[in-house]
Input
Amino acid sequence: MSGRLAIIGLGPGNVDQITPEAQDEVARAAHFFGYKPYLDRLELRPGQTIHPSDNREELDRAKAALDLAAGGQDVAIISGGDPGVFAMAAAVCEAIDDGPQDWRDVDLKVVPGITAMLSVAARIGAPLGHDFCAISLSDNLKPWEIIEKRLEACADAGLVMAFYNPISKSRPWQLGRAFEILREKLSPETIVIFGRAAGRPDEKMTYSTIRDAEPTQADMATCVIIGTSETRMIEREGRDPLIYTPRSYSGSISGLVTGLAPGAVK
Ligand code: SAH
Output
């Protein structure tokens, strides 16, 4: 008899930003898999069991959850933010793709959540107001050379970039190198936002320019947003500034070839 597997996004950390759908799914499940800090956010009742695992064990976690669900249990996998953004939903699909037939019979539900870049963007204005992309700076699951190529291509394309997994103890230099690459491509005044722990009590939003940005401004709970030559800041007396990317592109097409729109400081 096949059971159910819900892959639930809990949002950035603020209870108000957990969707009612995610809350219902948490109330329904009997077994919870996930990274311990995410499981710690749940308020469970007696009879609901947690199966914590390390952050690097995504595929094993997916398989264990699928096994239990295929055996008829009501299972949940918990992700921070959205489960489809650098998180467990893809790991579960990958496990099903290569797994036994009965995993395909599991009643699977992906429950979306507010992803980090949206939460950070909302706190500071509207930096993602025009075309943007999201890049994980972690080279645990892809070669660093690919990341460098993507950074260059995205800068050339004039996209706002949201960096996930910008830095960690085991990946100390990658963010600094990413800034170096972008300094070659972007105007020095390009705005960089460091959105740390959005929605949590220890939230901290800071900003800089690509010229002055320091990797030490980020940690593993930070989503870094790199603006374009269009992204700008509105100073407000007694209030935090607003950073936004306008809805319409005012640069030239040739500006995109160098990543610098006309008017950008060269
Ligand atoms: N599925 C998650 C992302 C997992 S990758 C989501 O959709 O948000 C983990 C990375 O997400 C962290 O290294 C950090 O870059 C970012 N992140 C997660 N929660 C965050 C938060 N509350 N504030 C800022 N960045 C966060």
Q: What stands out?
A: Residues 259-266 have pLDDT under 50 and may be disordered. DSSP finds nine helices and 13 strands in the chain. The first helix runs from residue 20 to 28.
